[in-house]
Amino acid sequence: MSIRALWIITHEKGEHVSVRFSRRFPTVEYRAKSLAGSSYQAVPEDSAVLQLLLTELGLADPGKPYVAQRDDCLNQQRTPALELHVDSSAKGILWPVLVISRGPLILACLPLVEAGEPRPPLSSLLSVSQGLTLLEGLQSFLGGSEIKTDGDGLAPRLALMPSVLQQVCPLGTPLDVPQARAPSTAGVPAAAGSPRQPAWRTGQHRGRPAVNVALTETVRCMQYGDPSKQDLWDVYGTVTCKCDVEGVLPNVTVTLTLPPNGSPLQDILAHPCVTSLDSSILNASSVDDGDGSAFSGPYKFPFCPPLEPFKLCSYTSQVPVPPILGSYQLKQQQEVNHLRVSVNLKLHESVKNTFEYCEARLPFFNRVQMSIVDVKVSSGHLDVNKEKNLLVWVLGQKFPKSREVTMEGGIRFSGQLPGPVDPLCTDLTAYIKLYFKVPDLTLSGCSVDQHSVQVYSCAKPKIVTCRELQSKEYFIWNSTGPAPVSSGQMIL
Amino acid sequence: MAVSWVERVASFLRSPSRFLASTTAEVFLVELLREQRDERVTYDVKLTMLSPLCEHPTLLCPSACTGEETCLELMSVFSHCPPKYTEFRCQLLLTLTTVLVSTGCVSAHSHASRDFLELLLKLAQDTYYDPADVPSALRSTRAAACECLRELEACCPSLLSQHLELLNGLRQQENPRHHQALSGLYAVVLRNGVHLLARQAGAGPEGLKALLGGNAAVAWEAEPDSPALTDRAAPLPSVLGPSGLGPTLQTGPDCKELRSVLSSLLEESYLLTPLSQAALLHALTEVVAMVSGVSPAIFKAQLLRLLGTSKVCLFHCTLLMKAAFTDSLFSAEDEAFLLKRLVALCQHPQMSTAAQLFYTDCLVHFPENRPIGAADGGEALPVLLTPRLAASLVPTVFDEPATMLARLNVSALVHLEEHGAREGGAAGGGLAYLWEHLLLRLHVVEHGGDRAAVVTFFRASFLFLCHFGHVERHAADLRRRLCALYLRHCRLAPHVLNLADRAQDGPVRPGWAVALLRSLQGVAVSAGGDLAAVSQKDLHWHLRVLARVAEEGQIGQGSTVDFLFAVATAASPPSRNEDWRLGSDLLAVCRHLLAHPGLDALLCPLADVLQHVARHHGDTDVRDHARLYYSLLTALSREKLAGVLANGGGGANGGRQDNKRVLSAMVVESQDLTSALTIHKARTPVFHLVAKDRAGGWAEPTPAPEDDEAAAAGTEPGAPDADVLSSYRSQLLSSGAAAEIALSYELRHLDVGPAGFDRLFSLRLHFEPSAGRFAALADVCVPRLFREGASAAPPAVTLTLRPRAPYPGTLRCSAVFTAQDELTWHAALPDVHVAFRQLFKPLPVPASWGPALRLRAFERLWDEFCSDGDGGSVGEGGGGDASPDRACSLFCGRLGEAELEALLEEHFAPFRVADPGDATGHRVLLFIPPGSHVLLRIRPQEDAVQFHMATDNWRLLPHVNDFLLSVTDWEARNGVDS
């Protein structure tokens, strides 16, 4: 349940690679050596590890189209654990090197394997899930997905790493993940004699009590406009809380409710601070047909809040219709570079017609720049980006009363410069991507009533709840061209 | 100064080996420790300076002794450090632990470890609380001390097992703010204690009770010989291994103390951070798995919370519990629920990619209550995983490569499970979907997908083939599509070839790879139709592909050679003819063709290609190599050629993946070739020829020629004496056989010979006769010679000598052969001496001549040699001219009758001429090639034997004399009168 070493690496698309931070844990190494016996492989120096990692990640030698060690089709990387071949012998292998990589940041660690030969399955090693949890915690501490290698964000955070690790992983055994925000100074330690304090709640809140509960639902969608292909959409929601309440072990309960005919929330995951869960809450799952138990709330989450904001729970939901139904038709005209565009978007009647923003983007790949855009829209306005390969249809805050908007017209491509390349979107394979956000709405109908939030504390806190719906990967594919199908439903 | 230290430390941590190249570890350590004592140095810098010791303690303290000294130093630093520098104090404790453990100092005999343990226990118990002091500092130091104790216990199990009661007390004290650290420490000590107890034979409930109640004094001096400190136990492996559970402790149902401890730990587990919670639960799972008296149901209350968690480590903990306790904790219903949950987590939008991948791996290693297969830790699908459940796990084109491969794998397993692995099972939407998905990936590659997309497609293809290679429809289609892909994007050749290689080595149905290569050959050679239209790069790839295809013995290479000829002779563009790279690519194909089993059929066209390149290519190097290959092709035997090429090519397997044959291979080849083609000189003889029989080898009786004429002439009993001699002489002239002697030898290793020559092949023996004694000999070939036990008969060698003079002589002898190192060697053999007696032959007369005729011939010759008269009476034979050489002589030897008989039997048996009329005398006729005769009449006298000699060559008499002397071998040497 320990890790032998940890590395933080940055790169820019495989170039300018460097180990920005590394830490070895010799006591764990001592255990590794004793447990592994003859199959023990010491951890090489950082530069060697870096090279091996890059090879396994396919980032080494970015200029070469084919490198046998890097591109061999036998390297089936299907787990988050890599094998690093330190030398050519069968024994000289470092395993399991866990790697999570996002943007310019690569985080890697080598968990201890508490068994000798033969190699146990990855799933039998607790140190692997521990390592992954630590790496993910470090990743969000270092700036999450919006990391710039040379920006202001990373360097100061890296400078904090030694003291952070002293707290969360002093001798190679991860105890906690670093808090993404700077250590809270608001927290005041509890006085003697108070009840036992959770390790993840490092102090007490002093000040005006307040509870914020935000419910965000995200909808993903694939619409094909083709009767032979099933349209897909799914919805998932996250409840984020920030609880400034007094007490060593305060007790808060948040209740999610569904409208009377709402479909049950599925795949519910709860934050570990939730003290107890009802089995009926966990029963509904998106992966089977539902057993008809039809528990549809209320969903109660009693918890003792940490001081910092946290994700109380998340869920998925199956809603009967997508919020915006669209059709997209591209037709090749007689001239090679002339396309006829026809788009229709229809806002479902159950969806509130008040957007924070709503726009449709029509990218054109593998073509030269647009020269003439002769397109009319029934609502909103149309922009062409600077590179002249993307149409942005800004629909604004509202659909018209009819809840239906159209775009018709022709586009000619005869510009000088080639546009962006996408190997998937060739010929008439094209899509519209919708970006929208609707405040105070959830598709599942799920809501957190302000009055249902219970706080067992002396002072009555101010309770604020909000909800919103946003889109992500909301695609409407051109129905006149082939479109990639991505659904297991096809199998059944 | 401070900055320089920070830089120095950073430089050390970047690469300790490079840093220590400029200084020594000893010096660096001394400097580090000196700075720790320097009051002018800030604690921030001191903190940094602990890192080298904290991360590479064994480099700086190579011995236990240095480790001990360093620890004592650091402890004195700790005692002098004000409490307010918490971070430094904590780091110092961690460093001390690291150094002690890594240098192997943790033992009762180490002052440092005793003092340090005492310090840690004191810090852990320190409940001193002063609000004016920095309480969080105190908390941190105590937590750090607990963490150090936990690590010491993990590295040296049972170190603290005597203190369980104490630790439990601390844990339960009111409001200990470091309860997480104490819980973790207690769990590890308990787990180790139980583990070691369970390993002991006969341990039972009393042992457990004693363990839990263990409460040794804190002062370590009280028990310097504590067993924990004296015999250092190695870190304990996990008892929840895949190979089943570890040791168990038989306690009976009564484990109240343990149960209550476990319950209280579990109750408070909620208060721990997820990571510590998971570690605690895992340790307790191990304890319960080892103690038979505690029911796993003790975890029941935690399960729902754990099943609903969003944290990977906590859910994983549940899976590990499932693996440990199966149906004693999880009912069949629970199992179905857990599986459903796991499948949902594998694709939950809130899960990170790494977590999804991990869960997918857990899915194919799902701990079932009733596992059916894959007990060996291999992948297997849980029985309850239905296609309906798995439908959410199909790969999509938007997946990241690793996710896609993991899902493709699971989906393929599901499909195979559902439809069976038969060809008939190819039906079903699942396979169709996966095939469509593969085609979509192919589409991306065809339309300019980046390198990652290409690599992913080929990995997916390999995975698909591993699962569905038996579905001929798709396997053949994939082959066709790969060829089409190659035709459009020749640069993908290395990927396609890599796939072919792996498919050939791996579990894909045999023959697929060869079929793919055959199709690729078709694609490549079809470019030969219009070479001018093929770009230089594509041509390079075609040649690479053909080189790989040429490795396949099953694939005919006729079209390849035609293509090579077309490339070699193509007129345009002229620059190609100058291109060294292209030339060497072409030669690489030729090279493989040289080793192809179907080379015989390719000999002429390939020779044409090589000759053309050797003459007309614009690059000297290419020309030279072509010439070399041409020589190899035309001059070497198949075996030798194969040997040469195998040597030149490096390892068969490793070589295939490298591009070794393109550029640098030429050099490699040249060196190996030089070695392979050179005849190496052995400094000392390796083997020798040993005459086959004791006497030094009688000449094999040469079969007489079937000379019917002579026989017809000679067999007539009534023929006159003169006719006997003349017919003898005429047949002697006409048949050459009489002039030859055949000597039999065996070829044997010398008893003491150089090493490395125990197994020799293709030996060719060459002989040089001395000073014109014999006509030149033909070389003798021996297939092999092994230095092995007596069981294998040594090879026989028969030398057919054609003497030019009737005297003994010497053959100088040498051999060329191949040794086991596959190199060709030349070695001299010891000279072969041909003794006088080895020249003896019976009278060379046709086989049809009976004894009477032989006797007559003897008498006539005797008369002729002993007479002084002219040779005219003998006839027209050559003997008449040799009259001056005729001589008679007498040799006497002291022999008894029996000895004489033995001598005759031994030395003269083949040469005797019987005379039934003369009982007392013996006649011996020795014919000595090329044409001399020695006749002996041997008459026993009273105490001696007289050897009357007659010869047509008096120069033989000394040799005859020596010979008779050697065979009669008596001490008294009687005078010989001649």
TrEMBL record, chain A:
Major subcellular location class: membrane
PROSITE patterns, per the entry: MHD
Similarity annotation: Belongs to the adaptor complexes medium subunit family.
Assembly mode: Probably part of the adaptor protein complex 5 (AP-5) a tetramer composed of AP5B1, AP5M1, AP5S1 and AP5Z1.
Subcellular location(s) per record: Late endosome membrane; Lysosome membrane
Name of the protein in its database record: AP-5 complex subunit mu-1
Domain MHD: 208-477
GO terms for biological process, alphabetical: endosomal transport; protein transport
Superkingdom field: Eukaryota
Region ranges (Disordered): 180-206
Organism: Gadus morhua
Keywords: Membrane, Protein transport, Transport
One Gene Ontology cellular component: AP-type membrane coat adaptor complex
Bilayer topology: Peripheral membrane protein
